[in-house]
Hints:
By secondary structure, this protein is an alpha/beta fold. 35% of the residues lie in helices and 23% in strands. It is globular and about 60 Å long. The structure holds 5'-deoxyadenosine and iron/sulfur cluster. Iron/sulfur cluster binds next to helix 7. It is an enzyme of class 2 (transferase).
Amino acid sequence: MSAPKKLFIKTYGCQMNVYDSERMAETLGAQGYVATDRADDADMILLNTCHIREKAAEKVYSELGRLKPLKAANPDLKIGVAGCVAQAEGAEIMRRQPAVDLVVGPQSYHRLGQMEAEVRAGRSALDTDFPAEDKFDHLAARPKAARAPAAFLTVQEGCDKFCAFCVVPYTRGAEVSRPVNRILDEARDLVERGVREITLLGQNVNAYHGEGPAGRDYSLAALIWALAEIDGLERIRFTTSHPNDMTDDLLEAHANCAKLMPYLHLPVQSGSDYILKRMNRSHTAESYLRVIDRIRAARPDIVLSGDFIVGFPEETEAHFQATLDLIEEVKYGYAYSFKYSTRPGTPAAERGQIDPAAADDRLQRIQALITRHQQQIQTDMVGCEVRVLVEKPGRLPGQMVGKSEYLHAVHIDGGQAKVGDIVPVRIVQAKANSLAGRPI
Ligand code: 5AD
Ligand code: SF4
């Protein structure tokens, strides 16, 4: 029997890419590939790329440049580009870097097996269609291997919102929700393999409306309640949400579904109504803050996180100040801030850019404020009791690490906790990026 072929996948960008990479590894596993963590050892290298900001695409091209010499050393090596850069750039990737054999967009992963056969036969393969069929129907079933206790599960893909800065509606296409039964089957399978926490993924996950049993339309809240019935599944999370889709039933689930964790990522992008309008966000700062009030009324201890863009075209110091004011009012437990990056093909790309030095300055100021709140919220956790899902051993002997219900990383010193246990822990110290706790 010939030795198995080795597959190296490098994943950029969001959690959905992490999920897609796992599914691609399983699909190619059915073609006889086993995973390797070394590019120089691989028969197939796949870069699963992100196109959300400019630098991400440039990073892919430089990585491809670095990989090219490996092909001289191993003429059988095949190099593929998947993900959103593949979708956006298509054949241009092969023109710019001829070492690339395969380009596959995020909606075509079910065709990867065939494409692999093509490139093995010495041809190149390109697929960036948006086929009508569900790619997940055709992806190989997951092998029954044990899994880490926390897993991602994509339930919805694509976006119909068309924020003026964002490439997602173009790279991931229109909003599509997977049917409820498929998601429940996949969740049960994950639980059988040791998973206790599932994060439901979607670019607009709270706009989920999937086909349920008897043709009934399920909202995200209905899906969460159905998942909560699965014995052994202890924790449910979802990301990323849009403020306009925070429906009453979802708030009610936050109030009453014990398995739904008290953490919510709800990007606002800016605190200025003028900029929000120019971003085509279809909400105001005020309407966003009122949504936050409703969420906190439903679940007072919830930890919120958000995304912000600074330096959007036309952003003045006063607009930026409105963003700082909003952050001051909400106090995020986590927040991600980005300097606006021009994405060709999006409406904002046609507009004038602001002074890059001003954008850099604003990024530093927003990050300083966010970090201050983040640290305050971590410090406030000292003395509190949390429940930690243990994910892996820590660096020190006898130490275990995991996540609290609020998604804080917690190091547990002492005790007998094993991977997959959910243990009550008293927080004793807040460090820069994690909390230290003792078992109760
Ligand atoms: N420039 C900067 N940040 C962006 N994001 C999306 N598009 C851009 C862009 N063109 C940010 C948004 C989004 C997050 C995933 O990435 O804040 O919520
Ligand atoms: Fe992009 Fe806006 Fe859709 Fe989020 S809601 S994926 S930022 S277009």
